[in-house]
Amino acid sequence: MMTDTGYNEINKEIEPIISIRGLYKSFGDLHVLRGVNLDVFKGENLVVMGRSGTGKSVLIKILTGLLSPDAGEINVFGKRVNALNKKELNALRLRIGFSFQHSALYDSMNIRQNIEFPLVMNVKNITKKEIDIRVEEVLDAVGLKDKINQMPSDLSGGQRKRIGIARTLILKPEIMFYDEPTSGLDPITSEEINNLINSVQKQYNTSSIIITHDLTCAKATSQRVAMLFDGKFLNVGTFEEVFQLNDERVKGFYNYNFIH
Fold it and tell me: What is the pTM of this model?
């Protein structure tokens, strides 16, 4: 049975790593989030779906303290995000990894330099040997050790996505946020990225929020799916639970992906 937070009897016994209650956010007369409730549990991949402009990216920005909510309580790692000072927010963000839609690699740096950059900037007194070990480890995790000295421009779109994920993993995040991870990729490469998301979850025991319009990605990577409509989560449950519902808004989303 589903609720707006997606609880089941087992999850009631577990402390969520992310907890959102009564979240509201507006921009002038545009009411984006209207009383959102959601839990994400340790080691879980949760997919957030919804039409463009429904507030998916706004939700992520609030979770990381980049935007302030108008009302509601947002807890990450048991800390109330909107009550943290700048130093505490920076410490929180170091425990969170972001995989951006367009990879956000530095074109002037080769792959090694791109990946080691967050480590050099955020970890004091780390040796070159330690950096090299960590770089090779994450490149191995995404299957691209042979690209270490190449430039981003030499890589395919799927390879750039993988390198972007590797750069995120270098700081060993406990939470991962993926923004449209399969956007613009062909079906075979999309499947490789879906498999990589699942591999990262298992290898690093991450808790993830995956924002996607791609139902194939959602089905392949999610333990649960949260459908965002009109500023609230319409349904939260397994992929099968959400898309078996006789709701025209959900059916339309499904038909667009799998029938057209």
Answer: 0.87
